[in-house]
Amino acid sequence: MFNYDNEIGTPHKPPKLMNVNDFLNWKARFEEYISYIDSSLWIPILEGYKHPTYEFLEETVPEPISKLDEEEKKVYDREKKAHGSITMALSRDLFHSFRGYDNSKDLWKAIQMWFEGNSDVKKSKRELLRKQYECFRYLENKSTDELISRFYHLQTELKSYDLKYPADELVEKFLDALLPKFDMYTTLMRENPKVL
User: How many other CB atoms are there within 10 angstroms of residue 51's CB atom?
Assistant: First the structure.
């Protein structure tokens, strides 16, 4: 139960990024979490936060928190909650990689760049996913449940990289991937498309 709560989060703690290979699913869960706890936290994450400053001896220095007016304190608190939510969502190992980012916008952008990459990396990932889709089949010593899970995971990855396939093509791909012991059923389904 503890690992499940870590993975999906709770109303009081964000989902943890437990597996770097699951970044896109984590990102979607984290976005839902932020929208659930306080959608205004997206403001500093997406638009950034600039702490009020003042001039002192020809230097620009940050305004002490105690000197902020009520609205400035709300904006400051929003930034701290956003930044804290992101850092709490990182595993201990990942947290060390992103410690230098002191505002939520830069931290969020750095995490996305780290895991999603630039446009060249995304293009390579799209090509890899396209090839994985084309070569999708059952694997020896794997159950039907594992095949289904792999196929749904692949579909999610394809969608997240904007690779769309028609529903009938997806059904055909899955039927082709089933173990030979299901041939009789797949033949019946293909002969009677209404079943699909």
Answer: 14
Indicate whether 13 and 97 sit together in one domain: yes
**Displacement of CA 189 from its chain's centroid (Å):** 35
**Mean pLDDT, rounded, for 119-138:** 88
Q: What is the pLDDT of residue 81?
A: 96
Residue 124 shares a structural domain with residue 112: no
Q: Please report the beta strands in 2-134, taking only residues with DSSP state E, as ranges in sequence order.
A: 53-56, 59-62
Please give the residue range of the domain that contains residue 147.
119-195
Answer whether residue 1 shows pLDDT above 50: no
- State yes or no: pLDDT of 3 exceeds 80: no
- The verdict on 73 and 90 lying in the same domain is yes
pLDDT of residue 185: 83
Asked whether 52 and 68 are in contact (CB, 8 A), the reply is yes
Total-model pTM? 0.67
Sign of CA pseudo-dihedral 16, 99, 84, 23: negative
- Do 112 and 22 belong together in one domain? yes
Pairing of strands 53-56, 59-62: antiparallel
Helices 70-88 & 23-38, crossing angle to 10 degrees?
A: 150
Question: How many structural domains does the chain have?
Answer: 2
Domain boundary among 66, 86, 116: 116
84 and 44, same structural domain? Answer: yes
Question: Residue 44 half-sphere exposure, CB side, CA atoms within 13 Å?
Answer: 24
